[in-house]
């Protein structure tokens, strides 16, 4: 599977290559192109090497300088798409963690099928308020956010998750058994979270699968956490950013990986037994 960060960088590189080809096609050097655009030649090099994303104005100046103004609009759309694939957390959390939770509400309501795989945490859709507050609090501290609104964000996450009780949506959620064992928050919060999984996993619209630690891996090993929304978007969570994938061929790869992992999971009574063992391990 192509790394999601590589996919975003590849999309940027396509735009950079098209701009470079336009410059060369016009017979201009890097310095001549820069002079025509009114900036330093180093900026031209950074754009052509996909190190700096061009703005819409940059692209229009570039196309005007090489005599290809008719291609500007298409290049701008392509560049915006490449940049939207890769969203740094420092930008997305600028207005706080609560706003980040609220921003997804409308999109969630428009989605019919949610497929989530997590190797590290209980999926947000099934998190309790105490568990969510612990997760978001860790995130706020790690990212040195100026304001820690993780408690309010946790409430917003739980409110957003009420969608699992609404008609018109299906949820297929997979977690590695290790997720049940990672201590997030205090023992009381962890026990409440595991207890919630026992009831949430029995909801009519929810399919909760757990991949046992002892599973013999034949098709898929533990992957990065990813969410598949219908068949139109894949969201992948990295340490520094969230990557949004809309290319059908790449979405198909994630769906394939999800189905392989799904076959390795246990459900129903077998899944509940693993959760109960994790609760007992809390002492």
TrEMBL record:
CDD domains: HTH_XRE. InterPro entries: Cro/C1-type_HTH (IPR001387), DUF5753 (IPR043917), Lambda_DNA-bd_dom_sf (IPR010982). Pfam families: DUF5753, HTH_31. SUPFAM superfamilies: lambda repressor-like DNA-binding domains. One of its GO terms (molecular function) is DNA binding. Residues 19-59 form the HTH cro/C1-type domain. Coiled coil: none annotated. This is Helix-turn-helix transcriptional regulator. The lineage of its organism: Bacteria, Bacillati, Actinomycetota, Actinomycetes, Kitasatosporales.
